[in-house]
Design brief:
alpha/beta; Ribonucleotide Reductase Protein R1, domain 1; 3 domains; 6-stranded mixed β-sheet; 25% helix; 24% strand
Length: 292
């Protein structure tokens, strides 16, 4: 058997690359389906190569360090959330991604693309996320602004670019790595991106390991997340935990809430707190309905 990394999957066929850079076409054994496991791009696997034109077989999926379900990839160490002035940034979607990634120990960073269209968006975004310790990079795939700085920040971990359709993820990857991935444009009628990436693919070049993934505009609510656990996913809250009047304060307008006081004093961005409360309401509803 050989060891390799799944770099793409199309239908029931997967491509694995070994340490020497050789690629193999594989299929998944039925035992994984019985176990309720599906191979994901980024998985480390043990496999038996095929002979001649015959495909090989995935024999074992090695333990994962992380799993992202949207996009469906494994073993990501750093999530690069791409936003842009057009389409209008969905910051609630951004917070959902940060929450889920952080819960698995995945680092987060935000790349504000198309900086030529709005010179201030990156600065406004940086102010929102500075208390959470999440770095924000102002970049422009079209002009090359900020690309080298972002490239350096992406080194040292398997990165996944994610975010809304049309934010320019594939265009950004093309600019950073000198590739020619298919890119789309923005629908004039609804100002949404046209999704050009159909499946996740792991690309290795210039010391970077990066997932190119499909964009999306909706991330479903998490199931079975205890409302009390959501606050633990906000790094900017930690300094004030234990300082609230009530021990079990969820920072949802309770009297004597230290997090609200910090927001009033500018130590936490009020928009982050406002969106946290939207997610908290959603989490409570999902928790109440978990057995329905």
């Amino acid at each position: 058997m050989k060891k390799g990394t799944l770099i793409r999957g199309i239908g029931s066929y997967y491509t694995a690359r070994d340490a020497e850079g050789s690629c193999y076409t594989l299929r998944c054994k039925k035992k994984f389906r019985r176990q309720g496991i599906s191979p994901l791009t980024g998985d480390e696997v043990l496999f038996t190569p095929g002979e001649g034109e015959e495909h090989g077989w995935i024999e074992e999926i090695l333990p994962r360090t992380s799993v992202c379900l949207r996009p469906p990839v494994a073993n990501v160490g750093r999530l690069v959330i791409v936003i842009a002035p057009v389409p209008e940034p969905d910051m609630l979607l951004c917070d959902r991604l940060i929450s889920r990634a952080g819960a698995q120990g995945i680092d987060n960073l935000i790349a504000v693309n198309k900086a030529d269209l709005d010179a201030d968006l990156a600065e406004r975004t940086a102010r929102e996320y500075a208390p959470a310790g999440i770095p924000v990079f102002r970049v422009c795939a079209k002009t090359g602004e900020g690309l080298e700085t972002l490239k350096e920040a992406m080194k040292g971990a398997l990165c996944c670019l994610t975010g809304q359709s049309g934010a320019g993820k594939s265009t950004l990857l093309n600019a950073i790595l000198g590739l020619e991935l298919e890119t789309g444009d923005i629908s004039r009628k609804i100002q949404r991106g046209k999704n050009t990436t159909r499946q996740a693919e792991l690309i290795e070049k210039d010391g970077l390991r990066v997932m190119d993934t499909a964009g999306f505009n909706l991330l479903e609510p998490e199931k079975k997340l205890e409302p009390e656990k959501l606050r633990e996913r906000y790094p900017e809250f930690r300094e004030f935990e234990g300082a609230c009047r009530f021990r079990e304060c969820l920072h949802d307008r309770e009297p004597g809430c230290a997090v609200q006081a910090a927001a009033d004093e500018g130590k936490i961005h009020p928009e982050r707190l406002r969106r946290y409360r939207l997610l908290l309401q959603e989490t409570r509803e999902e928790w109440r309905e978990r057995y329905d």
